[in-house]
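Hi support team,

I've been running sequence recovery on a batch of backbones for a student project. Most finish fine, but this one hangs at about 90% for roughly twenty minutes before it completes. I'm not sure whether the input is malformed or the queue is just slow. I've pasted the structure tokens below so you can try to reproduce it. Let me know if you need the job ID as well.

Thanks,
M.K.
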């Protein structure tokens, strides 16, 4: 881990220990945007060798994770939330077209939930966005992208609900 990344992890920890709610996450988002605008940090943190999902740091006490993502091809993900977790998407390279949704129906009886699109916007390099618990969203990429993301909890260990757009 670079010294900058270590410092960022310490800062995130201090922020979340004081305020683990949406305000704390906005403070982390602002710090992440500063880092995303530092080309040296970006080049050192997410490279062409980075896999699609790579955990850079997982906090042993608070559970939050800092991740690097290197995507090589276009893809549209279905609407989803992160269950009990929040997430912060930080765009390092390329563009993500994000759609936010209203929750029309929760998943029930093995059927996916329903989500109605509200707005679509672009995450461009240097931009980070907070998704709080239950905020439904779907990212689309039209080409290669690189992101630095945070998860409130490591999503490898959390089962995701399915939603369909209506
Ligand atoms: Fe997501």
């Amino acid at each position: 881990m670079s010294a900058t990344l270590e410092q960022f992890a310490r800062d995130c920890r201090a922020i979340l220990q004081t305020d683990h709610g949406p305000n704390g996450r906005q403070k982390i988002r602002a710090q992440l945007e500063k880092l995303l605008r530092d080309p040296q940090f970006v080049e050192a943190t997410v490279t062409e060798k980075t896999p699609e999902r790579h955990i850079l740091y997982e906090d042993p006490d608070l559970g939050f994770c800092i991740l690097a993502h290197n995507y090589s091809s276009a893809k549209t993900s279905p609407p989803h939330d992160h269950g009990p977790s929040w997430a912060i998407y930080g765009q390092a390279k390329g563009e993500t077209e994000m759609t936010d949704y209203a929750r029309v129906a929760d998943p029930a009886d093995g059927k996916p939930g329903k989500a109605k699109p509200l707005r679509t916007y672009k995450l461009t390099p240097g931009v980070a966005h907070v998704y709080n618990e239950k905020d439904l969203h779907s990212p689309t990429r039209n080409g290669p992208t690189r992101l630095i993301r945070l998860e409130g909890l490591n999503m490898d260990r959390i089962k995701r609900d399915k939603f369909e757009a209506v």
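--
Follow-up from support: It reproduced on our side and the slowdown came from queue contention, not your input. Helices lie at 3-18, 22-36, 39-45. No action needed from you.
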